[in-house]
Amino acid sequence: MGGNIGATEEIRTPPSDALIQVQDLKKYFPVKSGMFSNVKSHVKAVDGVDFSIRKGEVFGIVGESGCGKTTLGRVILGLIPITSGSVSYGGIDIREINNRELRRKMQIVFQDPGGSMNPRMSVRSIVGEPLIVNGLSDGAELTKKVGELLTSVGLKEGHMKRFPHEFSGGQKQRIALARALSLGPEFILLDEPTSALDVSVQAQVLNLLVDIQKMRDLTFVFIAHDLAVVRHISDRVAVMYLGKIVEMADADEIYQNPAHAYTKALISAIPSPDPNVDRNKDPLEGDVPSPIDPPPGCSFGHRLSHPNWEQSTKVDLSLKEISPGHWVQPCPCCTEGL
Amino acid sequence: MSNLLEIEGLRVHFDTLDGPVEALNSVSFSVKEGEIMGVVGESGCGKSVTSLVTIGLASCEIDSGSVVFEGKQLVHQTPKSVQRKIEVSKRISSALLLATVLGLIWTLFEPILGIQAAVASLTLFVLTIVFILVQEIPRLSHESFLRSIRGNRISMIFQEPMTALNPLYTVEKQICEVMKEHGKVTEPEKKRAKRFIEALIYPVNLLYTSARERPIVLALLTLVTGTIVALHLRGLASQYDLYAFLLLPSIPFATYVFSSYNLDKADITNPANQSSLILPKDVAYSTLPIAFAVPLIVFLLLWLPFSALISAALICAILAIPPIQASNYFQLDPAHRRQVIEILDEVRIPNPETVAKMYPHELSGGMRQRVMIAMMMACEPKLLIADEPTTALDVTIQAQILQLMRDLRDREGTSIMLITHDLGVIAEMCDSVTVMYAGRVVERAPILELFSNPRHAYTRGLISCTPSLSSSRKSTLPAIPGQVANPSDFVSGCRFCQRMGRTGETLSAPPDLNEISPGHWVDMCPICTDKGQDSWE
């Protein structure tokens, strides 16, 4: 993080109402090989990320597959250990919070609704299990509570005795949401909750999420690769590329004035449901490079084989605030003129 | 433009344990030459079944309708009477086979009568089988006709590229297989026998080349051979099993030769390549532990009876593995490989030479889908059916794949039938659109007409429920309530009215598909075509 300490300090100063504060977070996975499983190198899944999430805010994270979105989410939740840096929840480092207490405050909804449920458990036990584990309710009270939860996500109380395979994808995602809501958390991580769903069902689930968030004043982190969906639901959006945040701003700001070339490329790749727009735009070439040995400097400039990429290895790439609340990774190749 | 594919009044059902379940009900549309035709609808609307029926891969019963491709009928229905005949004959044939066996057992007690009975029932059995075969001839010839078309004139890209590719074969083998099947490969450069002989003399060749190019290898080789000969001449060899003993240093030596040979090859591959390739270098390093372990094992074996023989066999086997691996015998002919690389290059795969030798698990999702497209384009088909080709991919990769398919159409004039549930993809790609709902075509129109003037409520619902960059944030999206009904509960009338929970006569009277303006066909349900009746959540 070298030279530009002022900017780094600024982004690390939490706003007064910050719920989650992430500071220089890194998560490296060791790559083992050889006879004695020697650690040969590291997959730098999350490589120095700073941001804070306010209470009652929906924070969107976008990026292609392999950019470290899911890893970042799981590290925030404390599901996988942190390599370095810190995540604090309400001012306390999550490593110091009791695990049981942490789970009551932070919950998760996974991408694949079918895969995250035990097919041999009824909906009542799936949704009620967190309550039983935490000793909050049992018996008839549990049935009543699960019924309320199911009603709040748009299912019927009668669905309680059924099993996951009897539901469609959208309904399963509703059950997963009811399970996440069962402990009354303040924070829910939504890891691509709609990408396995049809458009019409996706719209239903998104409406439900918006309603629940408003009603219960929840804080969401919404991870997705569909930018239109993220924009629809989020207050602020962070764009990730190869383990780093390259741009972060208010949702409207980032779509109207994208500063980083990667954000621009992502936005132009969204297929728009309007046949009159220019069809022959040039798509972004190539794949996300392997995070095992990321190129030095600006990794997106490297993918574009930008002529100015060489210069980016020599400058400081920490996030810079270009307008209030709009943070960009300044580099000579992807954000020319900044 | 003439119609390449014409589907007319297709009706199919699946036989399940709960009775027949209707999957398609009067599906009609056509794909023109050089056109990209989009089929849109939710899961369970019969999009995939339509495509599978088209290429004859569906396991359903076809009740009526026709699929005509380049003037040829692709749907073959065995008439009911023939089906019954075959059914009865099959039962009779199994009874006759049983009778033959019983007759043979009877010969144990009454030889002549038994033989007579067995022969008689066997003759009848053969006759029945011949009868069944004669009845089946039209179906079998149709099947072989379909095999010649499938992958050749019509090919299909499936949704999940990982499950569509075989994980056990390299990319080049899989692509070449399609071409071989349809006779599109060029003359092989080398004959099979010649390649086999080359593989056999490969170790000698390898030693010869490395000795010629590296003085140290030559020196080592001379040293080892010289020591063996010297010991032999002095009569010491037989005392200590020295033959085997002296072969020990030759094993790390051979490994050294092998690894250095491979390292040379590794330099040829492009170092700028960013993807995580398994380079031959790694293979060479991984053989080094073996090189140290093997002398140890051999050394232990030396103290056992027949030790020399066993160890020599072991050493030979271990020495033989790397050359066999490296030899060209198990790989493709160079001429065929060039052809495959050319095709991979056409779908803009970077580094086609390296990718051709990879296995599907080594590729990313977008690359796999490209390989899949390359395989399907190998025979230059007239019609490409793409069943949700980009649903599992990122937006950026999706844009690449769509661009690729559009280029193919522009260059080769291939017609594409694109199945998706994303109207954004439809708007970007297609020339005309067919909207399907619950096994029925509800609307069919050219792309601009459909988006500017959607007549059916379902089309309007699909268009409006997609979040776009211009809609207001956190607003309630106009989602279509409910979900597609279970196929066994379908009503005969308008099924979208069924979903919206309407009652009345629209549920019982099947709506007609009418052409309201040139090329714009709509399922004329009075409620669904009325804009004022839309009620989204």
Commentary on this structure:
Chain A has 338 residues and is an alpha/beta fold. Chain A is built from twelve helices and twelve strands. In chain A, α4 (123-133) crosses α5, α4 (123-133) packs parallel to α6 and α5 packs across α6 (169-181). Chain A is globular and about 65 Å long. Chain B has 537 residues and is an alpha/beta fold. Helices cover 50% and strands 15% of the residues of chain B. In chain B, the strands form two sheets. An eight-stranded mixed sheet of chain B has the order 6-7-8-3-9-10-12-11, sandwiched between helices. In chain B, β7 (383-387), α17 (395-412) and β8 (415-420) form a beta-alpha-beta unit. The longest helix of chain B has 39 residues, at 111-149. The two termini of chain B are 42 Å apart. Mean pLDDT of chain B is 80; it is low at 261-288. The chains are: A alpha/beta (338), B alpha/beta (537). Chains A and B meet through α7, α8, α9 and α10 of A and α16, α17, α18, α19 and α20 of B.
Which labels suit this protein?
heterodimer; A: 338 residues; alpha/beta; disordered N terminus; B: 537 residues; eight-stranded mixed β-sheet; 21 helices
**Number of helical elements of chain A:** 12
From the alpha carbons, calculate the radius of gyration of chain A and give it in angstroms. Answer: 21 Å
pLDDT averaged residue by residue of chain B? 80
Low-confidence spans of chain B: pLDDT under 50, at least 5 residues? 261-288
Shape type of chain B: flat
Please compute the radius of gyration of chain B using only Cα atoms: 33 Å
Got a strand count of chain B? 12
Record the strand order, biggest sheet of chain B: 6-7-8-3-9-10-12-11
Q: How many helices of chain B?
A: 21
Q: Could you describe the largest sheet of chain A, including whether it forms a barrel?
A: 8 strands, mixed
The percent range for helix content of chain B is 40-55%
Q: Pick out the low-confidence regions of chain A.
A: 1-6
Helical residues, percent of chain A: 25-40%
Topology pattern of chain A, helix = H, strand = E: HEEEHEEHEHHHEHEHEEHHHHEE
Biggest chain pair contact, residues each?
Answer: A-B, 56 and 52 residues
Shape assignment of chain A: globular
User: What topology, given as strand order, has the largest sheet of chain A?
Assistant: 6-7-8-3-9-10-12-11
Number of strands of chain A: 12
